[in-house]
Design a protein that fits this description.
The structure holds two protein chains of two kinds. By secondary structure, chain A is mostly helical. Chain A has a domain at 29-192: MetI-like (MetI-like fold, Orthogonal Bundle), CATH 1.10.3720.10. Chain A is built from eleven helices and no strands. In chain A, helix 5 (100-124) packs antiparallel against helix 9 (172-178) and helix 10 (188-198) runs antiparallel to helix 11 (201-231). Chain A is globular and about 70 Å long. Chain B has one domain (29-53, 78-216): P-loop containing nucleotide triphosphate hydrolases (Rossmann fold, 3-Layer(aba) Sandwich). Helix content of chain B is 34%, strand content 29%. Chain B has seven helices and ten strands. Chain B has a six-stranded mixed beta sheet, with helices on both faces. A four-stranded antiparallel beta sheet of chain B has the order 2-1-4-5, with helices on one face. Chain B starts with a strand and ends with a strand. The chains are: A mainly alpha, B alpha/beta. The A-B interface holds A 127, 129-130, 132-140, 143, 147, 150-151, 153, 232-235 and B 51, 53, 74, 77-78, 81-84, 86-91, 100-101, 104-105, 132, 134-135, 148-149, 152. The structure holds adenosine-5'-triphosphate and magnesium ion. Magnesium ion (MG) is lined by residues 43-44, 85, 160-161 of chain B.
């Protein structure tokens, strides 16, 4: 019991003192997950628009696969990216394994189906009258599509935030492709996993607390956005 | 009236049920046309087809300017507009809803400001311009729908039951607006209603959809 209390007090000391190692780890976590999120959104949003507005063969199957991929196990993605980037793999020549870039790639793959799939459901659930109204006001086909996407914005934002929550919390993929190298690829979740293993509870606990705080922040933002989206669709 | 609308022998059915059957009419003079008929007779369907939102199964819709048939492209669609019975409000402020048609036409910001404010003034909603339009009452929503249609200076304004779910006070406001439009001289209004009194108050030309056809009343 005493050791737990001691670990907590040391953890808080680390947080309060803005410990440099701690800050570096937090910063890298945010950078890797944030970049993955931006890339996944840049690819995922147009992809979801394409799925929503275009008809193509096996569309239903495609959407089902995308939905399934929302729950991809991170370790499997890690393994897959590892095989791609390892020296003998097809992209091995790029020398990306055990770099932050590899971690971004893995997390992009995790985030993409979530963003694409949730954006797609947000877009298709925009009421048809919005499309009709924009047509009656003289919108071109492209303008109609953009208007529908704009109407779906709260649902799309929810998707992006959900994806952020998932990549911030995952450890399996980035551990495999990043390797938890101190000062280079060490992020919050991998540190927690490995420091706990080594019995270094203070740092792990400090990061755990901060991760929880970030998670709380993400979920509050999600809740707020969903509430805002709700309140304004009472018609 | 510079833009003429010829409806020629159109047919329309939904799920095998004919709604319009060999329906023809020429809208060729300036004024307010009011289309009457009971619920479900096909007024909305007729207006949606005229406003180029839907295609007829058979027959043709043609717009003429100086006796030339116009191509049914965006340019033509931008000369006409239809206010839907439920308006179709965007999740944005009253101002931005009303400005929509101008924004997509690439109109300059200052010009948009001026036109939207004067249209909102016209429909008595200027004090609500920063409110989210989804919070408007149905009467206010209808008025905003008319403002949103008017800012683009259409040559033909289609109104589908503009007073269907609206209280007496708002009915009067909306009817006054339609009479004001008539006095201004533009645009031509083609509207549907099942309110006989309203039809008589507003119409220059009274029409009726009966037995799946449109005719003068
Ligand atoms: N999209 C649609 N799908 C299936 N049936 C439709 C559709 N639109 C209209 N109908 C049918 O066509 C008929 C005519 O409908 P319409 O809305 O044109 O009538 P209306 O004269 O406008 O009626 P109201 O006075 O109630 O507005 C109705 O029987 C309706 O059920
Ligand atoms: Mg109707």
């Amino acid at each position: 019991m005493d050791s737990i209390i001691e670990a907590f007090s040391k953890a808080f000391t680390l947080i309060i003192n803005f410990n440099a190692e701690l800050l570096g780890i937090i910063f890298l976590s945010l950078k890797v997950s944030g970049t993955a999120l931006v890339v996944a959104t840049i690819i995922g949003l147009p992809l979801s628009a394409l799925i929503s507005f275009k008809k193509f063969p096996l569309k239903g199957l495609f959407i089902s696969v995308l939905n399934t991929f929302m729950g991809l196990p991170p370790v499997v993605v890690g393994l897959f990216v590892y095989l791609l980037l390892s020296r003998s793999g097809p992209l091995g020549f790029m020398g990306l394994l055990y770099t932050p870039s590899a971690m971004v790639i893995a997390q992009t793959i995790l985030a993409l189906p979530i963003i694409a799939s949730l954006s797609n459901s947000a877009i298709v659930s925009v009421e048809p009258i919005v499309k009709q109204a924009s047509m009656t006001l003289g919108a071109t086909t492209l303008q109609v599509s953009l208007t529908i996407i704009r109407e779906a914005r709260y649902g799309i934002m929810s998707g992006v935030i959900a994806a952020f929550g998932r990549v911030m919390a995952e450890v399996g993929a980035i551990l495999i492709v990043g390797g938890n190298i101190a000062g280079y690829t060490r992020v919050m979740t991998t540190t927690i996993a490995l420091e706990t293993d080594k019995g270094n509870f203070e740092l792990a606990l400090a990061l755990g607390i901060i991760l929880l705080a970030i998670s709380l922040f993400i979920n509050s933002a999600l809740h707020l956005i969903q509430k805002k989206g709700m309140a304004q669709t009472n018609r | 009236m510079s833009l003429k609308l010829a409806v020629s022998n159109i047919w329309k059915s939904y799920a095998g049920n004919n709604v319009l059957q060999d329906c023809s009419f020429l809208f060729d003079i300036y004024g307010t046309y009011v289309i009457m008929g009971p619920n479900g007779c096909g007024k909305s369907t007729f207006l949606r087809i005229c406003a180029l939102l839907e295609e007829p199964d058979a027959g043709e819709i043609n717009y003429f300017s100086n006796n030339n048939a116009l191509k049914k492209d965006v340019e033509l669609r931008r000369k006409i507009t239809l206010v839907l019975p439920k308006v179709g409000i965007f999740n944005a402020t009253v101002f931005n809803n009303t400005a929509y048609g101008l924004k997509i036409r690439g109109v300059k910001h200052i010009k948009i400001e001026e036109k939207v404010n004067s249209a909102l003034d016209f429909v008595g909603l200027i004090h609500k311009r920063h409110h989210n339009a989804l919070t408007l009452s149905s009467g206010e929503a209808q008025r905003m729908g008319i403002a949103r249609a008017m800012v683009i200076n259409p040559e033909i304004l289609f109104l589908d039951e503009p007073t269907a779910s609206v209280d007496q006070k708002n009915i009067e406001i909306i009817e006054d607006m339609i009479l004001k439009i008539k006095k201004q001289g533009a645009p031509t209004v083609i509207m549907a209603t099942h309110d006989t009194g309203q039809a008589q108050r507003l119409a220059d030309i009274l029409l009726e959809i009966k037995e799946k056809k449109i005719s003068l009343l």
